[in-house]
Specification:
Layout: E1 2-12, E2 16-26, E3 29-30, E4 38-42, H1 56-85
Antiparallel strand pairs: 1-2, 2-3, 2-4
Length: about 90
């Protein structure tokens, strides 16, 4: 009944994948207490493997954009307060 298992692949063979679990989901929802456990998954029953990588440039650009928006909003508030004071 497992719909999704996420985590880090520790080892892979022709017929088995060893996965250090981050999360395990069934049709009823997430299964508690499985994080960190190593599960041996039959490769024949794995429908899809997705790889996600940390992208530092994208992260930096996103953080910079959020900071720029926050700074702009702050400046608008300060300028509006200064204009009302005059």
């Amino acid at each position: 009944g497992v719909l999704e298992a996420s985590g880090t692949i520790q080892a892979a063979g022709a017929d088995t994948i060893a996965l250090r679990l981050g999360e395990l989901r069934t049709s009823a929802g997430p299964v508690a207490g499985e994080s960190g456990r190593v599960a041996l998954l039959p490769a024949a029953q794995v429908a899809r493997i997705e790889e996600r990588k940390f992208q530092p440039v994208t992260t930096i650009l996103t953080a910079g954009g959020v900071a720029a928006v926050a700074l702009s909003a702050f400046l608008v508030v300060v300028l509006a307060a200064m204009i009302r004071g005059f």
